[in-house]
Amino acid sequence: MLASAHRARYSSVRVSTVWYFAYGSNMQIATFRGRRGIAYRRAVPARLAGWRLVLDKPPLVPVGHAFANVVPDPAGAIVGVLYEITVADMEHVELTEGVGIGNYRRIDVTVVPIAPPPDAVVAATLVSDARAPDLLPSDRYMACLVAGAEEHGLPSEWIARLRAIPCTPESADAIRFRPLLDDALRRRD
After folding, report:
1. What is the 3-state secondary structure (H, E, C) of 139-167?
2. Which of 14, 62, 65, 188 could share a disulfide with 138, CB 3.0–4.6 Å?
3. What mean pLDDT value characterizes the chain?
4. Rounded to two decimals, what is the model's pTM?
């Protein structure tokens, strides 16, 4: 219902939108809207069944920290933010997440909004096959996940799970690299 209602609503104005499911730092408004420049139309707390959140994805640039990823798990479920964005915005997300160079790959998943109406939506999300079990996420990165979860009203149990994930202080390399990364993420439209 959500998908068909959204198509009907925007078909008359010929705006092409897609659903994107964020589970990592893109949940945070300062990252998604601020650093990436994505002006989403809607943000909905949602649940993805059959997957598990892991924080063992190695960085594209070796800064010593792991990042969020999801892996198939029939008994698992994760909570994140379902964004309605333009096709151009999704292309920007893919570009800045390194889809074109194999950092992540885009897949379609079925996500269910937490609040009524709980109509399933097919959404794009990003996954990686790369693993670095010896790396931990940085405390700064985990703060982004927690902030995003709180901003979008994700369940308190999920926020507590995020807070309980072991992390490490951000490395000097990551701190030095961040201005370059922020510049690369910025839209040039």
Report:
1. HHHHHHHHHHHHHCCCCHHHHHHHHCCCC
2. 65
3. 88
4. 0.85
